[in-house]
Amino acid sequence: IKLFEKDGRNNASIPESITSVTVAASTSLCVNAFASAISLTDIRLNEGCSEISLKAFSTCVAVENLYLPSSLQTIADDAFSRSFSKATAPTIYFAGSESQWQSIAENCDIPKASLSYNT
Predict the structure, then answer these.
(1) Which residue has the higher pLDDT, 99 or 81?
(2) DSSP label at 21?
(3) Which residues pair with 51 in a beta bridge?
(4) How far apart are CA 95 and CA 49, in angstroms?
(5) CA triplet 50, 86, 112: central angle to 5 degrees?
(6) CA angle 89, 95, 96 (to 5 degrees)
(7) SS (H, E, C) 52-110
(8) 6, 52, 58 from 93: Cα distances, Å
């Protein structure tokens, strides 16, 4: 899977056997950052991340828990395209308030997600 991309090239990857990942220090997730990470069930973005780019979580069908920081300001409208299994409703833990979430996720299509605020 693509993790970080520069000049259109894949610079790092993680094996499909990994089910959990924490992005410790990043201000944004690039296009296709976790695209096709079909085995990831838990994803955590630490404070400091302000942007989730296009298709960052595209085709992440196994995600059960997604932890997002209160520093998040932008989510691309197709950041989660073809993600989340139809049988699984993921839980999104957002460290900010409900009003913050509404302002950053208004154009984002997150089907059937359960949201938890101030976590």
Answers:
(1) 99
(2) E
(3) 28, 74
(4) 12
(5) 50
(6) 110
(7) ECCCCCCCCCCCCEEEECCCCCEECCCCCCCCCCCCCCCEEEECCCHHHHHHHHCCCCC
(8) 29, 15, 19
Mean pLDDT computed over 5-12: 52
Q: What is the dihedral of CA 115, 104, 59, 23, to 10 degrees?
A: -90
Round to whole Å and give the CA distance between 8 and 103: 30
In the numeric block, which tokens belong to residue 70? 């209160």
Exposed e or buried b per residue across 87-100, where buried means at least 16 C-beta atoms within 10 angstroms of its C-beta: eeebebbbbbeeeb
Longest dimension (CA), the chain: 37
Query: Residue 48 gets which letter from DSSP?
Result: T
Look at 114 and 9; give whichever has higher pLDDT. Answer: 114
Confidence category of residue 90, pLDDT binned at 50, 70, 90: confident
